[in-house]
Write a structure and sequence with these properties.
By secondary structure, the protein is mainly α. It is about 55% helix and about 0% strand. It has four helices and no strands. The chain starts with a helix and ends in a 17-residue tail after the last helix.
Amino acid sequence: MLRVLPILVALVLLVFSLVDLAQSPRDRVRVLPRWTWALVIVFIPIAGALTWLALGRPTDEGPVIPVAPDVAPRQLAPDDDPEFLARLRQQNQRAEDDRLREWQADLERRERELGPDDSDGPTGSTGSTKP
C-alpha cells in the first residue's frame, strides 16, 4: 500500500489540477495562458500541478490581466459585413453585365455571318412553291 500511495497522490493531484484549470475563467488565470498550464500540469506531473496551485490559480483579488492572451479580437465574418456584401454585389453585377455584352456581341457577329435575311417567310429545303 505504501508503494501505491505516492502514485495515487500524484494522480489525484493531476486530476484535481486539470479539473480546476478547466473550470477557471479564462481571463482570471494568472502568469500563463490556459493551454500552457494544461501542458505544464500534464508533462511535469507533481511540480506542474503544485505550480498551478501556487502561481496560476485565480484569486479573488479582482481582475487579472493575462500575460499572453490566447484569443484575438473578434472580427466580423464576411457574410455579416455590409461593405463586403455591397462590393460582392457590385462585382457580380459587373460580371453579369460583361457576360451579357459578350453574348450580345456574339449574337450580332453570328447574324452578320449569316447575311441579310430577305425571305418573307420560312422556306424549306425542298424548294417547293405553290401556284
